[in-house]
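Reading a protein record of the kind used here takes only a little practice. Think of the row as the fold of the chain written in a discrete alphabet. With that in mind, consider the following protein and its fold in token form:
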Amino acid sequence: MAALSIQERKRLRQIGHALNPVVMIGGQGLTEGVIEETNRALNDHELIKIKIAGEDRDARAQVIDALIAETQAEVVQKIGKIALLYKKAAKQNPNLSNLVRHAHLGNK
């Protein structure tokens, strides 16, 4: 997968600003269920926010890195306990894709 350009990243951040986290990763860390839910959310929405619990910054970064490796997604932005992930869907669903539903945000 090619790295996102600066313009693409900026547009995805604009869209991501309006989103709420759809995957919450708690104290158990990265489980099969979390990976499956993240894959499902990425497939449906393409751009999602995840929230990682815990105060240890390095541990949160490791969880994000492991999740990226498992899902083949790309990190658009990390702020504190929130990460914005992007993965192009094989077949985009216009009713679910955050890129389609919030396209007007990126076209200012």
